[in-house]
TrEMBL record:
This is Sulfotransferase. InterPro entries: P-loop_NTPase. Pfam families: Sulfotransfer_3. The lineage of its organism: Bacteria, Pseudomonadati, Pseudomonadota, Alphaproteobacteria, Rhodobacterales. Gene3D superfamilies: P-loop containing nucleotide triphosphate hydrolases (3.40.50.300). It comes from the Bacteria.
Length: 232
């Protein structure tokens, strides 16, 4: 492929769908993605084929989206062939990309054939994410926080090796729009004519708030590190 792909990374319920939608409006070709769902009014913007393949790679290690793998992944020729077939469906004459939180754990699987990929990430407070998972999946808050930590440890590790442009989903709407505009400019995309109208503050149903929840020390430190690394 001659075009430069864009991989949109981040924990579930962390604003990755919003980021994908804004970037799609700025010209990134996402293809046949989900544009509406019960828990996401504008859709998760995920390619079902990519999501299913990521699930297959994870399941080979007894892992899943809510049970991350331990250690490095390997894959067989059948999975590699499916990956390569999926990638033939993306254009070669324009910027394209895909978004799936699972890619944080299957990154090496994709990067093996997409070494030129550019990486962007979305960050959201662990308590807000845990509350969202509790509402959607009835997941206990402590389990949601632990899952947030596992995903974002991977995001932080990738950011130590690769150039990952991270946006915080916790900033004010005006600040978020300004940061996305900066990202669009950095990526060489075309700002949408509606001034980033895809972003809708009303879609943020959960916040960190003032809950009587103490984050584990490693989680709190990780969040602070990623906030420090995010676009200011």
């Amino acid at each position: 492929m001659t075009s430069s792909p864009l991989l949109i990374l981040g924990m579930h319920r962390s604003g990755t769908s919003c980021l994908a939608g804004v970037l799609e409006d700025a010209g990134v070709w996402l293809g046949n993605v989900k544009r509406q769902s019960a828990h996401n009014a504008k859709g998760n913007r995920e390619n079902p084929e990519v999501m299913a393949l990521n699930d297959a790679v994870l399941s080979g290690f007894g892992a899943a989206w809510n049970a991350p793998p331990h250690g490095a992944l390997t894959w067989d020729d059948r999975l590699a062939e499916t990956r390569d077939q999926i990638l033939t469906g993306y254009p070669t004459d324009r910027v394209w990309g895909f978004k799936d939180p699972r890619t944080l754990f299957t990154f090496d699987f994709w990067h093996a054939v997409l070494p030129q990929a550019r990486l962007v990430g979305s960050l959201r407070h662990p308590i807000a994410v845990a509350r969202s998972l509790q509402a959607r999946n009835k997941m206990p808050l402590d389990q949601g926080i632990a899952l947030w930590t596992a995903y974002n440890q991977r995001l932080h590790a990738l950011a130590q090796i690769h150039d990952v442009q991270i946006l915080s989903f916790d900033v004010s709407p005006a600040h978020y729009r300004a940061n996305v505009a900066r990202l669009i400019n950095t990526l060489g995309l075309t700002p949408p004519s509606d001034q980033l109208g895809f972003f809708d503050e009303g879609l943020r149903h959960q916040t960190a708030g003032d809950a009587d929840i103490t984050l584990p020390a490693d989680t709190a430190t990780l969040y602070a590190q990623l906030q420090e690394a995010a676009i200011a």
